[in-house]
Specification:
The complex is a heterodimer of chains A (about 180) and B (about 140). Chain A is of the alpha+beta class and about 180 residues long. Chain A has 4 helices and 5 strands, in the order αααβββββα. Chain B is built from 3 helices and 6 strands. The chains are: A alpha+beta (about 180), B alpha+beta (about 140).
Chain lengths: ~180, ~140
């Protein structure tokens, strides 16, 4: 069974840096420069920690969903729960999402895949299916525009067309989507 | 037109309300049923629905509990039959059980299951975009 993971504290060692960055005792020019660098490092670390924490929470949600489906079976039908390999690929996908991209909602699919959904409204959404291969099926609605495509995921970087599609749906702009 | 044991006509009318009962919390959010809720079963290539009005009456939820078959029933996505047909899918009466119907005609591409899935998700998204979420 996949275990949900708790948010990890990254503060060991960083605490001393934080104290130095926030202190007002440095007087010399060199000390002030060092304090500026420390402040920038702390700010960066805090931003990373916040983003990392969100992804950890998302991975936990994904694993909880997989466990729920394994116990219940699929909605109203006689199909299997989420395939553990699909969960692992979905986790890789989440980790590969660049900072600043909203994290998706999750849903089970009747063939054992997991759906990653970016939903702005009923008529503005991007839905991605992660199964047991590295080919990802996706579709979108954007008002009257709609479409679908398949892209290959190498486990490390999000396929550009998928990233463009997610951005188009989640941004306030109205960037036209293109099929692969 | 022939009549089914439930008393409904054997052809599902365009203006009939259909309900897809929701037994998984991941299949809806605060305001809509997600596309995944409408995806077809890989075993029979159909999506089960119930023919019923949009009013969440006792009879409606009794139908839902029957469809859930012991699983948690969270609510339903309710939509008109013509929404299915406008997505180039079919909806057919399929009794028993009473009032049961199925969405059929989903794309099926044996040689490219991922492209098949992408096409299905687009169609499921179209239905989801026009379905009303009714929670218990």
């Amino acid at each position: 069974m996949l275990e949900p993971i708790s948010t990890v504290s990254l503060c060991t060692g960083y605490a001393a840096l934080q104290v130095f960055a926030r202190s007002r005792s440095a007087i010399s020019r060199e000390a002030q420069d060092v304090r500026k660098v420390a402040t920038a490092l702390v700010d960066s670390a805090e931003l990373s920690q916040a983003l990392f924490g969100e992804k950890v929470a998302a991975v936990s949600q994904l694993r909880a969903l997989a466990n729920e489906c394994a116990q219940q079976g699929y909605s109203g039908d006689k199909d299997a729960g989420i395939d553990p390999l699909a969960v692992l690929i979905a986790e890789s996908f989440l980790r590969a999402l660049p900072d600043g991209i909203p994290l998706p909602e999750f849903a089970s699919e009747p063939d054992g895949s997991v759906s990653l959904d970016w939903i702005q409204s009923q008529t503005r959404l991007f839905t991605l299916s992660v199964g047991i291969t590295n080919r990802l099926a996706y579709a979108w609605l954007d008002g009257a525009d709609k479409g679908h495509a398949v892209a290959r995921f190498n486990g490390e970087s999000i396929p550009p067309l998928i990233l463009e599609g997610i951005k188009a749906i989640t941004s306030h702009g109205n960037i036209a989507l293109r099929a692969a | 037109m022939a009549t089914l044991p439930s008393g409904l006509p054997d052809r599902v009318g365009d203006d009939e309300d259909l309900a897809r009962f929701l037994t998984q919390s991941s299949h809806f959010n605060a305001f809509m049923a997600k596309p995944s809720a409408f995806m077809p079963s890989p075993t029979d290539r159909k999506t089960s629905v119930s023919r019923h009005g949009s009013d969440p009456s006792d009879a409606f939820w009794a139908l839902g509990r029957q469809a859930a078959g012991g699983r948690n029933l969270h609510g339903a996505a309710v939509f008109k039959a013509h929404v299915v047909r406008s997505a180039q899918l079919q909806v057919l009466a399929d009794e028993p059980p009473p009032r049961h119907a199925v969405i059929t005609g989903w794309p099926w591409l044996e040689k490219d299951p991922e492209l098949q899935k992408a096409k299905q998700k687009e169609l499921a998204s179209q239905i989801a975009s026009r379905a009303a979420l009714v929670l218990i």
